Amino acid sequence: MAPDLPQLIADADDAVAQIIRASSLTAERWRNGAGTARRIATGGDGRHPEWTLSLADIERRCEFSSFPGFDRTAVVVGDDPVEMTINATTCVLDLLDRVSFAGEDDVLADPTRGSTCLLNLMTRRGVTRGQVSLRHLRGSHTFEPDGVQACTVLAGSLLVGDAELRRWDTVLPGDEQVHTVGAATVAIVTIHQVSAADRAHSSTDKESCA
């Protein structure tokens, strides 16, 4: 199988999961040209995505691109910390620290020691609501299809069927249960559609850098 193609894995219950290898991801310039990102998955219309999950490479001090109408969550998944300034408020994020902010916020990232990497989730406000949960898995685990769109390995390894997932590899469960075995720290990305009632009272939740 070509290394740049998604891998389909059938588990014991014949559910099919899509495996995205970190090594297969292509780096693309940010909208403002200040950095690069490797897209893992996107939901919704290609021209009007409802959500996007990517790995953002932070190699030097840089401003984030503006994405009005989106909410964002960034998790440090590289080895080195990054100093994040969001609307003039600054904090230093270490490995597995995360912060949420609006796509229209003024955001500056500055790696404090060397280049690092962020797991970056963007969701279209008023259409979808996303959450990134960090978990330490050991032994066997079953992912239910309720809203789980992606599971990215951050440390350790997991088996999904016959496929071994290592650092920054991702499984996209789809609409079926996915069974894993192993010991790993993972980021579980959950996406839910926003109802009309929620849309009428929606607001952006932010995790402050303070």
From TrEMBL:
SUPFAM superfamilies: RmlC-like cupins (SSF51182). InterPro entries: RmlC-like_jellyroll (IPR014710), RmlC_Cupin_sf (IPR011051), Uncharacterised_HutD/Ves (IPR010282). Signal peptide: none annotated. It comes from the Bacteria. It holds the Pfam family HutD. This is HutD family protein.
